Each structure stands twice: as structure tokens, then as C-alpha cells.
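thread from #wetlab-drylab

HS: before we spend reagent money on co-crystallization trials with zinc ion, can we at least see a predicted complex? here's what I'd submit
DV: go for it
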Amino acid sequence: MGVAFSSPDSPYTRLCAVYTCRCGAALSEVGRHAGDLPPGWERLEDGRCLCAHCAERRRDAIAAAAS
Ligand SMILES: [Zn+2]
């Protein structure tokens, strides 16, 4: 037994979160990462999510507006 998997009865194996962006991108996180945003994604104040691509564009727009 070199690798250990959690038992099917573990609540974590059923944890699954799906994140969708307004551009149509969707990404699901399963297990211990469910509840955390995927790398690069951002959560907006209203609870919506931005994918890594849109988050980068948003940061650029904010930076451009500030300059
Ligand atoms: Zn997006």
C-alpha cells in the first residue's frame, strides 16, 4: 500500500465545488480544495468569480484606471 486514498464514506470525497466565470469558463474543485478558489481565480465582492484570464484583465483595467 504505497498510496492512501480516503474512504468512500469520507465527507471530503463528496465535496465538490464548481466555479463559473462570466466568460463561460468553468472549473471544478473536488476534495480538500473545494471551497478554495482555483489558482488565479478571484472572488468578487458580490460573490461571483472570475477565471484567471478575466481576473488578469480586471487587474489590468484597474491599473489602467489608476494611472
Ligand atoms: Zn473568465
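DV: The chain is about 20% helix and 20% strand.
HS: ok that's useful, forwarding to the group
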